[in-house]
Write a structure and sequence with these properties.
- By secondary structure, the protein is of the alpha+beta class.
- The radius of gyration is 36 Å and the shape is elongated.
- Helix content is 21%, strand content 51%.
- The chain has helices at residues 3-14, 19-52; strands at residues 57-68, 92-104, 107-121, 124-140, 143-157, 165-180, 185-198, 208-217.
- The protein has an eight-stranded antiparallel β-barrel with strand order 1-2-3-4-5-6-7-8.
- It has two helices and eight strands, in the order ααββββββββ.
- The longest helix has 34 residues, at 19-52.
């Protein structure tokens, strides 16, 4: 091919606007990058929202308990002959119900009622009505370990005389181990409480005991 034809051919190629297809490719690539970044950010935002979202739940359950009432029917020989604390030879056995409400991970409530009416010694028994807060401590195997502080009152029957009873202030410190069996069912493998009871004209009592139970999640 003659040299002047080669020069003309290269001159024609040089005069072509090669920037247009290159710019379109860059624009398409940039749009893909923006779309990918937007999708990633949206997924991240959804994950952050799910992680921070408060899931409120409530569960109701039943228990069987065994408690040392810390009273064996003894009274002070000095008037007004107040009841005295003392270990009972028979631990009380009873049934109870409880409600656990989870507002957030660190904000949880517990309400419980317990009637300890079986295996009485000298017709002595007690009923507990308590409410307060519970907090998660750790996980041990499949169990969630919780601590709790509850307050309320208890009714005590001090003898076989129907009129010999009283209502005392009750503060309970304790903990529990809960094992989630299914989405709705949770086993309370163990629940321990140490109580402090006080009232006018009575000694301070320190009952303690353990319970086991099972709960059903309402929502």
């Amino acid at each position: 091919m003659p040299n002047h034809d080669l020069n003309l051919h290269f001159s024609s190629l040089a005069s072509l606007d090669l920037d247009v297809p290159c710019t379109m490719r860059q624009l398409a690539f940039a749009m893909l990058l923006v779309l990918a970044a937007s999708t990633t950010r949206l997924a991240q935002a959804q994950a952050e929202y799910s992680a921070s979202e408060k899931h409120i739940s409530a569960a109701v359950g039943g228990t069987i308990s065994i408690f040392q009432p810390d009273f064996a029917g003894n009274y002070s020989p000095i008037p007004p002959h107040n009841a005295l604390a003392g270990t009972s030879p028979y631990p009380l056995i009873g049934l109870g119900v409880y409600l656990d409400v989870k507002l957030a991970h660190w904000v949880q409530l517990e309400v419980e009622g317990r009637r300890l009416r079986f295996d009485q010694y000298n017709h002595i028994y007690e009923d507990n009505y308590l409410a307060g807060g519970r907090v998660p401590i750790c996980r041990l195997w499949k169990a969630g370990i919780y601590g709790k502080v509850l307050g309320g009152f208890s009714k005590m029957q001090f003898s076989g005389d129907p009129g010999n009873h009283g209502r005392v202030t009750d503060i309970a410190f304790g903990g529990s181990a809960d094992i989630k069996m299914t989405r709705r069912i949770t086993l309370r493998a163990i629940d321990f409480e140490y109580q402090h009871m006080s009232a006018r004209h009575f000694a301070n009592f320190s009952p303690y005991g353990a319970s086991v139970g099972i709960a059903y999640r309402l929502f």
